[in-house]
């Protein structure tokens, strides 16, 4: 990810993800309370907590899908939510919802998202993504006919086919068997 022209504290560009004092409230209900998290390029972080702890809310904020109530959020040096349009092309998201279209085929779904990402050699990228998740044989089948596990594999293909700098997974193993 190309860094923003804006330097962080001390003139040093921020890491890939930087949360400082992040808060999120829904009405009077605090969900996130002063979260500090710094993730550098190449690092992997797992969020663990009970249902309702705010894990999905935190990921939605980093994914530019939800604005924070307070604190600082930056991805690749760009501060959110102001620079969300600069950050979005560099993020891949697998969430509770597949964001796929049931009436389209697996290949057509990936073509649609590939066009949104502006991918060159689109047909080659679609085929590669389908092969990577083991769904090449189902490329021409409507997504509405897929099992939960197949849908999850196609969702992972959608989220990764543009080779994002940051991958956010919210319960990515839902519906996947051990081999998947």
Give keywords.
180 residues, alpha+beta, four-stranded antiparallel β-sheet, two-stranded parallel sheet, 5 helices, 6 strands, globular, disordered N terminus
Strand order of the largest sheet: 2-1-3-4
| Oligomeric composition of the shown chains | single chain
**Regions with little confidence, pLDDT below 50 for 5+ residues:** 1-14
What's the helix count? 5
> So what's the overall shape?
globular
Helix share, percent: 25-40%
State the total count of DSSP E strands. Answer: 6
Q: Hey, roughly how much beta strand do the residues contain? A: 15-25%
Structural class: alpha+beta
Cα distance spanning the termini? 29 Å
Order of helices and strands: EEHEEHEHHHE
Give the averaged pLDDT, no decimals.
89
> How large is the radius of gyration?
18 Å
The biggest sheet, with number of strands, parallel, antiparallel or mixed sense and barrel status, is: 4 strands, antiparallel
